[in-house]
Description:
Blueprint: H1 2-26, H2 29-60, H3 64-79, H4 85-104
Helix pairs in contact: 3-4
Amino acid sequence: FLCCISLMGPGVALCFGVMPLWGKLRTFSFYSRALPGLNAAAVGLLVSTIFMVFGALERRSPWPEGSRAVALCAYALLEHAKLGVPATVAIAGTAGFTWSYCRNNGLLGM
């Protein structure tokens, strides 16, 4: 119980503490003019994080080509097939595990 309160408490307190302020903040003209720049900065940080994680994957993976293929297939499942995130994670995890198992046991002929 204590762990749940310690984990969830700060986020809940922040949400309920900021929500009354949010309505007032949105009425300020300088904030509405700055919002596109703030969104662009957040997207830039997210994109740089994605590249850093992908770079770490490339360095640590014993088989970078397979890792790239699984990542691209997962992206295609999300964007083009419109599959949900949990199903995509399950499929990509299973594909990665199967690919790794077959490669390590000589079943792929490589």
